[in-house]
Write a structure and sequence with these properties.
With about 300 residues, the protein is of the alpha+beta class. It folds into 2 domains: about 180 residues, Jelly Rolls (Sandwich), CATH 2.60.120.280; about 110 residues, Homeodomain-like (Arc Repressor Mutant, subunit A). Helix content is about 50%, strand content about 20%. The strands form 2 sheets. Strands 1, 2, 4, 7, 9 and 10 form a 6-stranded antiparallel beta sheet that branches. A 4-stranded antiparallel beta sheet has the order 3-8-5-6, with no helix packed on it. A hairpin with a 6-residue loop joins strand 5 and strand 6. Helix 1 packs across helix 6 and helix 10 crosses helix 11. The relative contact order is 0.12.
């Protein structure tokens, strides 16, 4: 289980990178089926509602058979194939043919593919209904029930539930995985969890290796080596990338000026902030401002269209 420090850091990362989850399909299969799923730029998932589905995993990694309530996620959008089990006979009596239904969807982060959550996840994650907590099973069943309805707001409800399903699946993976890495490995390390909590709660503080090492109760050298060994980057690089993730979120809000954001994130001058932002993202803060302004304008109907 994650302690309070890890919970705080985890919530901050999810909030800053702005997870978006949507249910895109609700396919129904009768008898034999084969559905190749190509590689995508976003993550994908399949939640089995009823029946059985075999998933051929990417890179020749074998196959898994999933039943009702089971979930498979592909965080990096790896290609895979969904198919009926070998014992499904297409030529059998139609009345006896097996039905398989599922909910399929996709997820991404507003900040893009470069973030510590995705970096810490494997190519696929399987969550079995039998191995999951009651909350996960209840949520999966609620989603399946909602998908069968034609109620007003059905899509919106499914997307909101899918958002929670992703977080629960991630929590289950953290709890049971034997191959933790990156951010996930750091969150279950009490020393690093304390450091990550501090960084995420106060990104603008003038952190030094010495002050962070003190939080971890380690020497500067031991801490720097430990941090780099688990997260793959130096403490300063992680802090910089975290600040720039926060900058993306803040820049989308017109109430915050670039100068205010720079100060909030610990930069002495706006110029220094702009240089750091461009170094991490490859473009300047102005591009984020323009994109956010365009999105707001498109979201508000024009006076002409309103009158029409």
């Amino acid at each position: 289980m994650l302690d309070r420090s890890a919970e705080t850091a985890f919530a901050a990362v999810l909030g800053a990178h702005q997870l978006r989850v949507s249910v895109s399909e609700n396919p129904h299969f009768c008898g034999r089926f084969v559905e190749p799923e190509p590689a995508t730029v976003h993550g994908t998932f399949h939640l089995i509602d009823e029946g059985v589905c075999v998933v051929d995993l990417p890179n020749g990694s074998g196959a898994v058979e999933l039943g009702a309530g089971d979930l498979v996620m592909f965080p990096h959008g790896a290609p895979h194939t969904l198919r009926s089990p070998p014992d499904c006979d297409q030529d059998s009596d139609p009345a006896a043919r097996r039905f398989t239904t599922m909910l399929c969807g996709e997820f991404e982060f507003a900040t893009g593919r470069r973030n510590p959550i995705l970096d810490a996840l494997p190519d696929w994650i399987v969550v079995r209904e039998d191995d999951s907590h009651q909350q996960f099973r209840n949520l999966a069943r609620l989603m399946a029930h909602e998908a069968r309805q034609e109620s007003f707001g059905r899509q919106l409800v499914l997307d909101k539930l899918a958002d929670a399903l992703f977080v629960m699946a991630l929590r289950q993976h953290i709890a049971v995985s034997s191959e933790r890495r990156g951010l996930i490995a750091a969150l279950i390390d009490p020393r690093l969890a304390r450091v990550l909590e501090a960084m995420h709660v106060e990104p603008g503080r003038q952190w030094t290796v010495a002050s962070l090492a003190e939080l971890a109760h380690q020497s500067r050298t031991a801490f720097a080596q430990h941090f780099n060994g688990v997260l793959g980057v130096s403490p300063y690089q992680y802090l910089t990338e975290w600040r720039m993730a926060e900058a993306l979120r803040l820049l989308a809000d017109p109430r915050h000026s670039a100068a205010t954001i720079a100060e909030k994130l610990g930069y002495q001058t706006e110029a220094a902030f702009r240089r750091a932002f461009k170094k991490i993202h490859g473009y300047g803060p102005g591009r984020v401002r323009r994109a956010a302004r365009t999105a707001r304008q498109e979201a508000v109907p024009s006076a002409t269209s309103t009158k029409a």
